[in-house]
């Protein structure tokens, strides 16, 4: 048997125990082995041993001399006699107009902290989770920056220097990183599901997973999509042609009677080098933000104000007799289109009755149409209209070729019959003055021009018609502001106001269980305008509009090589600033469609992989702690009188927090999900059909809620979504499982990081209930004035302080010029960000109640828990942005730029100043006159 292995500091006994007692002793040191050998040493061994002893003595001598010199040098430095200092020089580079740290080197002038060695202290957490978290935080820091001067750069400089913006994006930040990781979790699940399965005999979970896989596969199968081409779209278009009429007509008697003088004034203005101006792109982004906010149930718009002039109108606008036959055709066509998610002429939606006695009763709202282009302003940009006309012309040409709309479905005008009579036989009887051949009526010219030319002319009229509709509508900030948009009228009056629509027949096609007595008209003047526009528009133009709306709505569901899809892609590349020919990210597109088709099934799989009941319970506890902290603080708010403070407390307690996933459908119950999607057939080779059937089911489900109490267990987001929202009419703050992920939350984290990151998100949504929009709703979600006038005035003064403060902040454009934040636009979000103060109080209170022992510290982070609380907060706003995108968003986004969301909030917070010892007048602790405190 071989000799035992020598022991080490980490191992107190040999790995294998020997049988020889002498050889198994563990107390024999080098010198005892040398002086008392177990056998006779050779001469060579004696020489080597003597040399080893000499080397040890020499090494000891040098170590002693070095230690003495170091002690002496330390004493000299303490006296101030040292002349050499060390500083950290930072090398920087500029990426997209933003200066970022790329490397640091030690040089004379600065203090450098040594890496700790030896055994860690007993209070340091050494679990894998803690080590990874500590490493992540250390990598994100830029410790060369004074945290009291620029805390955002201190907390995120390392992250910024190590992250680039993906080529297909304009910005990239912590939110995007989490969303990308969440997608990878869903993709991992999708790849684990077999493509074929007998769903008819499978259990609920297996059947659901099969639908999930089929939805994804059907979108990803581009080859099949290209092969089927236009076939899925044709039945929809042919129904419109059959019900309303053809768009490809040779001649219309209305053609010469309608003036289209301004229709073609944009032709030829678009060139290949054209780019959407920044101001226009900004308006489009702003419109998108407003639409998203509306979809998520968030209020857009500020405090109550006088309604715009002309908002109150006579609803009985149509004194002329309605064209019953045409009205019937339009009514049937609109009911068909709207049930399939196609926006045309007007739009109906089911929403809570925010201005009524019960905001949870689902009522009928009527909206204007929005058009294809991103915002109203785009319809005044001639190059865009020129490009849009070209795209619509290509779409109509392709549809006409595939449907044979003229030969099969053309509804002939009287003038066509007259022309045919003239051509074939002439009039059967003489007209007065027939003896004068020159006075005979001349037939209209026969038009045998190519299809593409006819469609190009028709497209110009369709675009002009759509522009007129959009012009007639309200600006979105009015349309989505409840103080302007809440205008309920009796259904009978709305019916009279819309000359082209039989409202009662339209509503009956959706078979609502409760017929609405009232309809809330979001912009009453639109009814008169749209009626006039439709009445004056020839049938074939209206048909072309209907058909183009179908094509635009479903273009993305067609194969990339299908002409309709190619035309829309050509338009989208310009509108979105995408380099021509850039291939779309098919995986991302398909994951988005998976959400739309079976999003809650995907949510269940995500929750199983990345969320736990314990995380849900703790998330709810954190939110409740923050609500309690806010509730307890309200009576001590100096600018609120007692009556208003008590009303605010009542509202705070009425807030309903929702964490993780909805219960309708129940994400944790496979059978609940199976019932929810039971009416939706999902096939792995029918992407178009999957989308269409899903839309029909969703619209039907929505209409079934009309007149009923809203199901409080439903959500506006899927569990995998990286976001959160507050819904004023519903009094809910909602946090999907998708956002309860690092760097926002992990169950293994110490409490100061949980409250600093996720707690800040929770406090943000809670504070929205008391910002300049949410504060207009009482504890029942009703649009009411529930503060006293004195408190309202005091609130507005402090809100304006925040607005003026943020209006001093800016971003840099591509040339390094400052573009300032619009503090009025961002006021609501800036106020909500100040909720961080409540998260901090809630964390401190939680320590006194729940943590009796000192919490473990993270390795390598020599900061207090208070300091790390604020590091956790700042890290969630880490982001790199292209200058053009930064400028665009600062002009349109209701959120301040991420840099200022962190910096502006912390500058106003005394707890931050104390935690980091920031002196008055420093960058992060400005003079009190420059600080604004509301909540």
TrEMBL record:
Residues annotated as region Disordered?
1-24, 426-451
Q: Which UniProt keywords apply?
A: Hydrolase, Membrane, Metal-binding, Metalloprotease, Protease, Transmembrane, Transmembrane helix, Zinc
Q: Which terms does the UniProt entry file under GO BP?
A: protein processing
Q: Which residues form the Peptidase M13 C-terminal domain?
A: 723-932
What residues form the membrane-spanning segments?
Answer: 47-69
Magnesium as UniProt keyword? no
Record flagged with keyword DNA damage: no
Q: In what residue span(s) does the Peptidase M13 N-terminal domain sit? A: 147-271, 325-662
Check the record and name the SUPFAM superfamilies matching this protein: Metalloproteases ('zincins'), catalytic domain
Cofactor(s) in the UniProt record:
Zn(2+)
List the GO terms this entry assigns under cellular component, sorted alphabetically.
plasma membrane
**A Gene Ontology molecular function term of the record:** metal ion binding
Compositionally biased intervals (Basic and acidic residues): 433-451
Q: Name one Pfam family in it.
A: Peptidase_M13
Give the protein family.
Belongs to the peptidase M13 family.
Q: Which PANTHER family match?
A: FI17812P1-RELATED (PTHR11733:SF167), ZINC METALLOPROTEASE FAMILY M13 NEPRILYSIN-RELATED (PTHR11733)
Task: Tell me the protein's name.
Answer: Endothelin-converting enzyme 1
**Annotated organism of origin:** Dioszegia hungarica
Phylogenetic lineage: Eukaryota, Fungi, Dikarya, Basidiomycota, Agaricomycotina
